[in-house]
Amino acid sequence: MNKVNHRRLLKTGLLVLALMIGLLSLAACGKKDASSEKVTVNIAINGGLNLLTIAKNKGWFEEEFTKANATVQWNEFQSSVPLLEGLVSDRVDFSFIGDGTVVTGKAANSPFTVISVTGVEGNQNSVVVKPDSPIQSIADLKGKQIAVAKGSSAHIFLIKALQKNGLKESDVNIVQLQPDEANPAFQAGQVDAWGIWDPFVTTETAANRARIVESVKTMNFIAPAVMIGRDKFLKDHPDLTALYLKVYQKAVDWVGQNLDEAADILATEKKMDKALVKTLLENTHYINEPISPEIADAIQSTADILLESGTIKEKLDVSKVYDNSFFEESRK
Q1: Which residues constitute the signal peptide according to the record (predicted)?
Q2: Are 296 and 322 in contact (CB under 8 A)?
């Protein structure tokens, strides 16, 4: 090989080497930029009086997630069905739902996992009627029109209450209405009964506009309310999931020691009477706990009942819908 060709090969080799180093540097820079991009955490409030509303007002999630290079986006839904639609379209990363919605949601392959338990009374799910209604029991509902948000925890409670009284869902006439539609229909006498949760139950009964026929308390039902996370978010950001539960625990601890201020916040946010809100808070046991065998059994019981009623088509194994590891990490 002559000297000219040797020099040419050497120059070519050096050029290739320089290009490779440049590409590697760009890749490294790209990787660095990607990791430094802010994550958006979509938190959804699922109606009613809840601790997420207080945490939002206090800015606790924003404070903690900013330290983790994440931003918070809030959304609000009236019930669990539209909420799960939001989760499927990636507009919800965290929220809370009832046990019935866990079952119907997973039966429809909604991409979420249960990560903690927030209560065991189903937010006072009840069937209410007008104070002067002749309906005195669940059995009296046969053939009657009942307003309820289909797929919601109140709908599931209604199905279970009917079954306990020897009735099927087909024995009554379900009128699909969200709470803001159901309330005026109920007050106008367009339906005979209303399957609903708090704060509506306490608000309407305290104003003598409704009477409880049965509730989760009167029927001794364990009706877990649970926190859920969108599966892809949980997989991509387990650290932020643990942080989310840590902040929620702060809300649980705070409300128990600051009932008066909590009532102020919720009364203002929900445009409700403060004394009524304080009563609701005193009657609600907010928790943030792992999924225990008892809670899993209660959700499994709901799944089995909904399979028997034909609401879901295939048996659901509840042990596959929850994961306590995020909760355990949040306690470290």
Answers
A1: 1-27
A2: yes
